[in-house]
Amino acid sequence: MPKEFPLGIKIGLDFTISMIYEHRAYHDAVEQAISEKINWRLNAIQKRANELPVSEQMEFIELNYPYRWALSFPQALRAHVIVGALSFLELQIINVCENIAQETMREFQRPSSDKLEYCMRFLCSLGVERPVESTWNKVKLCQKLRNSLIHNGLDLNTEKGEKVEEYVHEINGILKDDEHGYILERTACDDVLQTVENVLKEIRESTAKKWP
Asked: Read out DSSP for 21-38?
């Protein structure tokens, strides 16, 4: 064991936690772009409609409504935010495990599947406490959501219904709409990002207890 374990710098957890804010900034930029594009298109459509007879305006607006920007594009962009957040979490926890393995002279092999669980078992073998059950279960569910998005073209409507219903009940901002099916709202990304941050902070606290 090293004489002094420089936790915040050498194992990278402090830097990793700070990087969550970059993901939040990216998400904010995505939502701003969506909002601005929809408003611009709606204003342009309304301006054109105002030039028509009143009896034709509503039909023109309905025919030209920017459905892709209002529905399809936001779903894909938010799915990318969620996929990126969970991939970031897996990579960073692997990096942390590798750094700890180097500091403690322990062997660690990069996992090829179920990366979060593999890394957590490694940390637990060194005496690091697992995050509280509610936090860990939530991040594992977010991981399942990420996998569903990846394997279904970023569209939850092609995933098995029972899986998606679990997401609807446990993750804020995933809704079922009678007309458009399952929808990712902005708050779904917020919830996933907060869950990722919670897991990292709890692991940070636990490693600080192990190596004060």
From this structure: HHHHHHHHHHHHHHHHHH
Token pair 């374990």 is at which residue?
5
> What are the structure tokens assigned to 29, written together?
């930029």
Look up residue 51 and give its amino acid.
E
The reported pTM is 0.87
Q: Where are the domains of the chain?
A: 12-210
Torsion sign across C-alpha atoms 122, 128, 134, 135: negative
Q: How far apart are CA 50 and CA 58, in angstroms?
A: 10
Sequence-ordered list of residues with C-beta below 8 angstroms from that of 15, at least 6 positions apart, any chain: none
The SS3 assignment for 182 reads strand
Phi, then psi, of 198 in degrees rounded to 5: -60, -45
The Cα–Cα gap between 66 and 43 comes to 11
CA distances to 49, 57, 63, 102, 142 from 52, in Å: 5, 6, 14, 71, 48
CA–CA gap between residue 7 and residue 30 (Å, rounded): 34
Positive/negative CA dihedral, 189, 192, 198, 199: negative
Alpha-carbon span 21 to 35, nearest angstrom: 21
User: How many Å apart are CA 128 and CA 122, to the nearest integer?
Assistant: 9
DSSP-assigned beta bridge partners for residue 174: 184
pLDDT in tens, 54-105: 999 999 999 998 888 888 899 999 999 999 999 999 999 998 899 888 888 8
Distance (Å, whole) CA 106 – CA 1? 10
